[in-house]
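Need tokens for this chain, all 394 residues.
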Amino acid sequence: MQEPQLPLAGVRVLSLAEQLPGPICGLLLSELGADVTLLERPDGGDPQRQVGPANFRFGARAKKSVALDLKDPGSRRAAQLLAARTHVLLEGFRPGVAARLGLGYEEVWASNPGVVYCSISGYGQDGPLSQASGHNLNYEAMSGLLTPFVTGLADQYFLEAPPWGDILSGVFAALGVVAAVRRAESSGVGTHLDLSIVDSLVFALGPAITRHHAGAEAFPRREGAYGVFRCADGYVTLGINHEDHMWRALCRELALADYSELDHDERRSRRAEIRERIQDVLATRTVEHWVGRLAQSAACSRVNTLDDLCTDPQLRTRNVFTEAIAPDGEPFTTVRSPLAAEDSTPAAVPQLGEHTAEVLAALGLPDGVVDGILRHSAAVAGGGTVAAAPGGRP
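Here are the structure tokens for all 394 residues:
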């Protein structure tokens, strides 16, 4: 039986987006079958290649890399030709920068009216902060996600948590691109998607904001049996918040009969006392013991370390992990997206500019023009090597 075609097979994506949100969007599109090409600066490429090489490897696998100096007229013209034949263009500059490089939405739309043009920025394309600089922490502060730090609930939030704004905006961008591609296929009309990291984070706070405006607690205190607890050889979580039947089951297993009839409000008001009692009992036995006893009845889970993940039976069954190939040819372990089709062929992370000659040749540019662009890119890169083009050009 022939394997079904991936849903975005044949869709060409040109990505000028660096750091993390754009690469995550491109990764999701690639795993759905799109052909994704990174347009990178010759002098180092995406900054994540140097400051966060593992981050770069995570987001860049199965993509092509073209290195062009967009300040050079010939290279900029080549980039514009690439934009004219792409189905999707991703960019992550501050508003206005892409236009100054001749690759803004209006410029690309003029030669490619069906393009789906997706801009991902910290604060969006308009508004008083549209030109402000920032990183994930700034966007979290702006969105209200750091409210626990100013309301005395800082223990409910981890400052070193994953960059949720970058991740969420990348996922929302991919969803928006898929919807816009579908519409463009039927109408021939493209669109400009304006994705803000702050907007994405505010959406994630939707339930809390709705509770706040309804006069309820935006960040309600959890019960005493909701949190992380130490065992004899590691840690587990308990996830009981308002389920009386789970609470009574926990009390039976931990011999806490004097607490079993407490209701939700009492379990919240006596949180510290309850946590201490639970902790005293759980510390006497191993993680395996308690997960075996409580997983089904009382929402108990092992707290995995990163070293534990690859051997976790649940994650192995779900084929969460995959092998990929680093630019130096060495294999490394990374994570599949939940949408990715299972594929035994390891995806490769491109070297900077690895596909420049190949992609430019496919544009039909004269050999002399391609040679000039390659030489200029090599000079900007400080004399580094440039991938050879078909026919043996250096």
